């Protein structure tokens, strides 16, 4: 692969990316995402060139992740979009004592797609949503030691930079408190 060189300034795109990355606190996940998007675009062209024009189209360093996430979201079917809030709220937890700070937490795939609240159509939509977000790199899937498939948000950069995700979760303080109390009660009950 080659990085395009700007004909006016003589700067290579990799120099530009390096400068953008050194000015950000969550540089590595963002850089990984931008490079992945640039790679995919050159792969379609089969020219081995990472271009400035592609870099601008994907949202540059600051907006590429959020822009990609939003693009994926708006392409989802309405049922899948509706399942989004349920799935995402299972994948985050508030930091105790911090105002509106969220951290990522893994959740079993089975719990995300088979809620008692879901009918068959909603379960199918949740499965399709998760599969799509995993394929797009917005969620990750792994198998734990008990052979359970866990889903997680792969990086804090998504939590901190995708406005739709923040908006979806901004009204959920009551839910998070209730879920944490219930989970603690279940752990105590099981231990006794």
Overall number of strands? 7
Could you give the order of strands across the largest sheet?
A: 5-7-6
* pLDDT averaged over residues: 86
Give the biggest sheet: 3 strands, antiparallel
Number of helices: 10
Shape: elongated
- Please give the radius of gyration in angstroms: 19 Å
**Class from secondary-structure proportions:** mainly alpha
Order of helices and strands: EHHEHHHEEEHHEEHHH
How much of the residues is beta strand, in percent? 5-15%
End-to-end separation = 59 Å
Helical content band: 55-70%
> Which oligomeric state applies?
single chain
List the uncertain runs.
none
Fold and architecture overview:
The protein has 192 residues and is mainly alpha-helical. Helices cover 61% and strands 10% of the residues. The protein has a 3-stranded antiparallel β-sheet with strand order 5-7-6. It is elongated. The N and C termini lie far apart (59 Å).
Considering the chains and any ligands shown, give keywords for the structure.
192 residues, mainly alpha, two-stranded parallel ribbon, 10 helices, 7 strands, elongated
A few lines on this structure:
This protein is mainly alpha-helical and 192 residues long. It is built from 10 helices and 7 strands.
List the helices and strands and how they pair.
Layout: E1 2-3, H1 13-22, H2 27-45, E2 49-50, H3 52-57, H4 60-75, H5 78-90, E3 92-94, E4 102-104, E5 107-108, H6 109-113, H7 120-135, E6 140-143, E7 149-152, H8 156-161, H9 163-169, H10 173-191
Parallel strand pairs: 1-2
Antiparallel strand pairs: 3-4, 5-7, 6-7
